[in-house]
Design goal:
Blueprint: H1 2-6, H2 20-39, H3 45-68, H4 73-89, H5 103-132, E1 134-148, E2 158-161, E3 164-167, H6 168-171, E4 179-188, E5 191-193, E6 196-200, E7 204-206, E8 212-214, E9 221-231, H7 237-272, H8 284-309
Antiparallel strand pairs: 1-2, 1-9, 2-3, 4-5, 4-6, 4-9, 6-7, 7-8
Helix pairs in contact: 2-3, 3-4, 3-8, 4-5, 4-7, 5-7, 7-8
Length: 315
């Protein structure tokens, strides 16, 4: 952060601009670390370190998901293990709005939180797949389609039809996913083959004559089509792992608030950004915001609810 300011956002050697997001990420992380230190100064340094690591993970996941629409499970699995460790070190963490027990009770609450977050959102993903798992496109006349190779190692391959590109990882989330193209023309490595129903899987294609070819052995694939059926997910599995990680830190009550808060934040962002229905909006950053809000004081809302409304018999 200091070096970015010192160099005025440019490389010392070639004067090429250094993206502002690097400065922004470091500044945001520093602010969150400071807030954690201020709010939890009475806790041991071990607890604060656990919370610092959580903040770093949430910031990393937020920017990765916002830019690439993917959440690395290596981060969420590591975060889940750290979360359970934090619950053992500070049993109050998974029950901020309740009464803490010993380290074993803290671990139990963390495990329950992980299960609530992971399994709860996994069910949402599965039901969403059943309800919205396919996107059908039909055209009045045949349109061009092709597979587009990635420009670098970070970008995915794309399926492009009628000028619209869809990232490979947005199509193939499961081994059972199939992209079906009703093709009027098919060219494999520049050679024309019989038209008909083309089935594309994550690593192979099945031509209308039933023959199967590995994508790794094909130089190009293109043609024209009148319709296609594209598999899709209601929500990525990365979000499932992220909510499990949040539950490992904050227990089941933190899971429910983070999910509720994330939904509110996402709606506000969609309205402000004028994002239309059906457009992709990464949910991971909003889950991270919901988790941070819970840690920084929103748990008191839950405490107020349990202490004031629940005894009155209100839901």
């Amino acid at each position: 952060m200091i070096s970015w300011l010192w160099l005025r956002g440019k490389c010392r050697e070639c004067a090429a601009p250094i993206a502002f997001r690097y400065f922004g990420v470091e500044l945001l992380t520093a602010i969150l670390f400071t807030v954690v230190w201020w709010l939890f100064a009475s806790q041991s340094i071990g607890v604060i370190v656990f919370l610092w690591v959580l903040m770093a993970l949430l910031v990393s996941i937020t920017f990765i998901d916002a830019e690439h629409l993917i959440i690395p499970t290596s981060l969420t699995w590591a975060g889940s293990v750290l979360g359970l460790g934090a619950c053992m070190v500070w049993p109050q963490l998974p029950v901020l709005a309740g009464e803490a027990g010993n380290w074993l009770e803290g671990l139990k609450q963390g495990v329950m939180g992980w299960l609530a977050g992971f399994l709860g959102l996994w069910l949402v993903v599965e039901f969403g797949k059943m309800a919205f798992g396919k996107k059908a496109l039909k055209f009045d006349k045949a349109v061009d389609w092709h597979l587009k190779e990635p420009e670098n190692d970070q970008d995915p391959m794309e399926f492009v039809i009628d000028g619209e590109g869809i990232a490979w990882w947005d199509i193939f989330s499961r081994k059972s996913d199939r992209l079906i193209v009703e093709a009027t023309e098919i060219r494999v490595s520049g050679e024309a083959v019989a038209a008909g129903t083309l089935i594309i899987r994550d690593t192979e294609i099945q031509l209308p004559d039933g023959t199967v070819h590995a994508l790794s052995k094909i130089k190009s694939l293109d043609g024209s089509a009148t319709s296609t059926v594209i598999p899709r997910e209601a929500m990525g599995m990365g979000d499932v792992h992220l909510l499990g990680m949040i539950g490992a830190f904050f227990g089941w009550s933190g899971v429910f608030f983070s999910l509720f808060g994330a939904s509110v934040f996402a709606i506000v962002a969609a309205v402000i950004g004028r994002i239309g229905f059906g457009k992709q909006l990464p949910f991971g950053p909003f889950l991270a915001m919901g988790a941070a809000a819970w840690l920084f004081g929103a748990w008191r809302i839950w405490e107020w609810y349990m202490a004031t409304l629940a005894p009155l018999g209100m839901p």
